[in-house]
Amino acid sequence: MKLLLVEDDLAVRRLVTNRLEVEGVTVTLATTVAEAMTEIHHEIFDAAILDLTLPDGSGLEVLHGLRALGAATHVTILSGAGLEIDRVGALDLGADDYVVKPFFVRELTARILALQRRQDASNVTALHYGPLRIDLTAREITVDDVPLHLTTMEFDLLACMASHPRQVFSRDDLLREVWHSAGDWQRESTVTEHIRRLRAKIEVDPLNPCILRTARGVGYRFDPPQAIPSVKTPPAESSGTRSPALVTVATSAARSAGRPPAGDGGPATT
Question: pLDDT grade, residue 119 (50/70/90)?
Answer without folding.
Answer: low
